[in-house]
Amino acid sequence: MIHRRITEELEQHLNEVPAVVLLGPMQSGKTTLALEFAKKHTSLYLDLESVQDRARLVEPEFYLGMHTDKLVILDEIHRAPDLFPILRGLIDSSRREGRRTGLYLLLGSAALELLRQSGETLAGRVSYMELGPFDVLETNRKETISNTLWLRGGFPESYLAAEEEASFRWRRDFIRSYLERDIPQFGPRIPAERLRRFWTMLAHNQGRLLNTACLAQNLGVDTKTASRYIDLLVDLLLVRRLQPWFTNTRKRLVKSPKVYVRDSGLVHVLLSIENLESLLSHPVLGMSWEGFVIEQLVSVAPDYVDPFFYRTSAGAEIDLVLVFSNGTKWAVEIKRSFSPKPARGFHFACDDIHPERKFIVYPGVESFPVKEGIQAISVVDLCRELCNSSAN
User: Fold this and answer.
1) Percent of the chain beyond pLDDT 70?
2) Alpha-carbon distance 358 to 373, whole Å?
3) C-alpha distances in angstroms, 277 versus 151, 160, 170, 205, 319?
4) Measuring CA to CA, which of 17, 164, 199, 201 is 20 to 30 A from 326?
């Protein structure tokens, strides 16, 4: 079993607050992690997709009130938003009795809606954490970072599959299940085939500037509908909108976000890329690698680091700008080359924003200086540096 980096932090949060909401896409390992916690604590686990477990909650205040001495784990909590007011009352009651932390672990898959529902009722009582698919620090095998994890993505069943064909089939079935079973529960009915086409269009446009009008036209819907589809996929933690970094400059800056399908394995299955040989000859190669690296860095970044990109209309560009809470900036260029060289636009962009550190992430494993002040580095080593960074 691969150890999840978030484990110790989750334990710490449970020791500090009454409830923790653990967000993450379906099949990212939330339940597995929660069941590991159940073994370490006196606990009660309820799966709200289970008819039997839902039946226990016909009188939820009475039933949950019988178990206030346990860590109660509620899986798929977004399926029962009516529980939040009840949880608030039980938390407040437990506080009056002297038990203030480690009462509830809530697992959910729809970020924005779950944040809204829980935020309205559990304000001051809840902490939020995100568990994504495996990252390079969890798999911890340098020799495979540019192959297995990049090709298959980080969803545990896909990454750990015995063969490439099995991994590809799992990802294909995962997308089908999301489209036909999971997504309809989060909003108005969306035709599965139309959303599949839209998701595939985003994969073809991996890392490009968001042009909602163009996507809508190609899909045959209005712009408002296309925006709603993007919002839904972002909410389900399947797509990332990377916002542009603005600075005090007279230069004309790009203001549209970039859009990435977050898991590289899903990019590849949406584009019918079954193996590494096919990927290396596919037009999406460079943007697939860029999206993979960005997602790895963002997933391990501490809470005090915010991700952006920077681009001017004149061509100055930085693929990823990591902005620390104290104003420190790291500039990251991403190259799918074993002889990485910074583009002229990267130099111009760095002159604009004055980053404290400059990197080129490439597929190799060794770190070395490329030019003065610019370091070529592997994605694993930069993830480690980012994890060990400080906002002070």
Assistant:
1) 95
2) 6
3) 10, 20, 19, 21, 26
4) 17
The answer to whether 358 and 350 are in contact (CB under 8 A) is yes
The reported pLDDT for the residue numbered 189 is 76
- Among residues 101, 87, 100, 107, the alpha carbon closest in space to that of 35 is found at 107
Say if residues 320 and 334 touch (Cβ distance below 8 Å): yes
Q: Is the dihedral of CA 116, 121, 123, 124 positive or negative?
A: negative
Where does the chain show beta strands of DSSP type E?
19-23, 43-47, 71-75, 104-108, 126-130, 239-242, 258-261, 305-311, 317-324, 329-334, 357-361, 368-371, 374-377
Phi, psi of 253 (to 5 degrees): -100, 145
Edge-first strand order for the sheet with 126-130 is 43-47, 71-75, 104-108, 19-23, 126-130
> What is the CA angle 140-146-147, rounded to 5?
95
- Among residues 41, 59, 32, the alpha carbon closest in space to that of 104 is found at 41
With cut-offs at 50, 70 and 90, classify the pLDDT of residue 27. Answer: very high
CB atoms inside a 10 Å sphere around CB 4: 21
Q: What is the DSSP letter of 182?
A: I
Q: In whole angstroms, how large is the CA radius of gyration of the chain?
A: 22
Do the bridges between strand 104-108 and strand 126-130 make them parallel or antiparallel, or are there none, so unpaired?
A: unpaired
DSSP state of 25: -
The per-residue pLDDT for range 175-229, each reduced to its tens digit, is 999 898 878 776 667 888 999 999 999 999 999 999 999 999 999 999 999 999 9
Task: Please state the φ and ψ torsions of residue 207, each to the nearest 5 degrees.
Answer: 80, 5
Q: What pLDDT shows up at residue 113?
A: 65
Model confidence at 112, pLDDT cuts 50, 70, 90, reads low
**pLDDT tens-digit profile of 137-146?**
999 765 445 5
Domains assigned to the chain:
6-130 (3.40.50.300), 136-387 (3.40.1350.70)
- Whose CA is closest to 150, among 130, 167, 166, 128? 167
Where in 262-316 does DSSP place strands (E)?
Answer: 305-311
